[in-house]
Design brief:
Layout: H1 3-10, H2 57-60, E1 76-79, H3 80-86, E2 92-93, H4 95-100, E3 111-114, E4 124-127, E5 129-130, H5 132-140, E6 144-147, H6 181-193
Parallel strand pairs: 1-3, 2-4, 3-5, 4-6
């Protein structure tokens, strides 16, 4: 038996505090509850958001407006330069493989590949999003791109007005319609008859 075993056993069973035993008990007349107020009453429980006399946090925060923080899609970013340094030629790049090499924190979260750096190896890259420069860099090196999510739709596409072809007849400018040849002939005949 050692001294540590004795002290461990000695502190294992702590005697509970017996309150309400007078001033000489060591806990005073009010038994550690202070003087009067809600804290001195039985059944009192302090509020979780209570901050004493300080202006509480939930009243300091604004209660209007809208925040998109809870609905944003966050991506783990990987660059082409990272793929060039960490993967061999002909390798399969997946979120799980990126997690094993420490390029991303989680294989379950979404991954986006950006075009920073130069890629010279032929890789098959699977990710949720790609930038345009990343797609061009991977395909230029002979690799392939696999989208794990559907490609994003272009929101605003400017439509180029169609140029009139040379074979189509030129249309008359909008405005007053041209008088037909029949009407011109009829007016000339009327004048000759007079």
């Amino acid at each position: 038996m050692t001294i540590t075993e004795i002290t461990k056993r000695a502190g294992a069973h702590k005697r509970r505090i017996r309150v309400g035993r007078g001033e000489s008990s060591g806990h005073g007349k009010t038994c550690g509850r202070g003087t009067k107020g809600a804290g001195a009453r039985a059944g009192y429980r302090p509020g979780k958001l209570g901050e004493g006399a300080m202006f509480p946090l939930f009243r300091r925060l604004p209660k209007f407006g809208f925040s998109n923080v809870l609905f944003t899609t966050r991506y783990q970013v990987v660059n082409l330069g990272d793929l060039q340094n960490r993967f061999d030629d002909g390798a399969q790049v997946t979120p799980a493989a990126l997690k094993e090499l420490g390029l991303v924190h989680s294989a379950e979260q979404k991954v986006k590949v950006l075009g920073n750096g130069e890629l010279k190896k032929k890789l098959t890259v699977s990710a949720h999003r790609f930038s345009g420069s990343a797609v061009a860099g991977i395909e230029a090196a002979g690799g392939t791109v696999k989208w794990l999510d559907p490609k994003p739709k272009k929101k605003f596409v400017k439509r180029v007005p169609a140029k009139p072809s040379a074979e189509a007849p030129a249309q008359a400018p909008e405005g007053k319609p041209e008088k037909s040849a029949k009407k011109k002939k009829s007016t000339a005949e009327e004048k000759a008859g007079e």
